[in-house]
Recover the amino acids of this structure.
């Protein structure tokens, strides 16, 4: 068995595989391919966009402090997608057009069958509220599952501390 095969057998996830998943997620959001986007998340996935507690510190407890977005599991994401698709979300009618640019994908930790990754992002949005560009970084925990590599946790840090217009799952 080669070293590459041994690493794969041990559940080692490459940086390239992690980056590919993150780039795919960005593309699916831009194309509003909601079901495919949801399929990238594990059932227990946490999707969290904390607010800034001060000029230099983010909040640390999503259960007790104010969040910009927080879903404890994929059920919350599925509910949000349902409201977007059904038109029950007035903040998303009509839906903004977006272009996600993701880069600087770096591995920050590894354990058997999972990898932690950080990436920088910029999203350009255009809609009724005009044109907005937001940026920040993502912190992912990606886990190998029988279905393939899945997002187990996504933390979205937006460097802006003032929001103009709506911010939804596809704006970041």
């Amino acid at each position: 068995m080669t070293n590459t095969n041994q690493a794969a057998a041990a559940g080692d996830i490459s940086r390239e595989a992690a980056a590919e998943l993150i780039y795919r997620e960005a593309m699916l959001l831009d194309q509003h391919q909601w079901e495919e986007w949801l399929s990238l998340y594990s059932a227990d996935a946490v999707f969290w966009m904390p607010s800034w507690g001060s000029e230099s510190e983010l909040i640390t407890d999503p259960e007790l402090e104010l969040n910009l977005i927080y879903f404890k599991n994929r059920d919350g994401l599925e509910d949000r997608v349902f409201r977007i698709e059904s038109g029950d979300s007035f903040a998303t009618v009509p839906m903004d057009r977006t272009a996600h640019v993701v880069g600087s994908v770096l591995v920050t930790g590894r354990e058997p069958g999972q990898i932690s990754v950080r990436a920088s992002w910029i999203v350009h949005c255009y809609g009724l509220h005009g044109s907005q560009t937001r940026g920040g970084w993502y912190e992912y925990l990606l886990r190998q599952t029988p279905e393939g590599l899945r997002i187990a946790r996504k933390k979205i840090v937006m460097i802006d501390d003032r929001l103009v217009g709506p911010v939804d799952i596809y704006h970041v």
Q: What stands out?
A: Confidence is low (pLDDT under 50) at residues 1-10. The two ends are 42 Å apart (CA to CA). The chain has four helices and six strands. The chain has one domain: 3-158.
